[in-house]
Amino acid sequence: MPVKPSGQEDEYFAKQEIHRRILEQKKLAQAVAEDEKKRRKELHHMHCPKCGADLHEETLEGVAVDICPGCHGVWLDDGELAKLTEESKGVFKFLRGVFQ
Q: Which of 10, 15, 47, 48 is an S-S bond match for 68, by CB 3.0 to 4.6 Å?
């Protein structure tokens, strides 16, 4: 004769099922977020944030900067401004002297 499960047993398995579904939801949300990040990077990478034209990389004072041929904007990656404004650089050293 089969034994009817107790209320505690039903509650335990219900909690386990909820926990499993929450983990699946988190994994799915993370995968969607990663796909969206990749899609946005492919869509916007090396495009001018101002006008949308393709950026061209050029070397300025030994630092690779991104220049827009459309609006002539200059875009710097992390740390590139610090490299350009070091005391030993000629153009920026001159400009710093003019404005100080």
A: 48
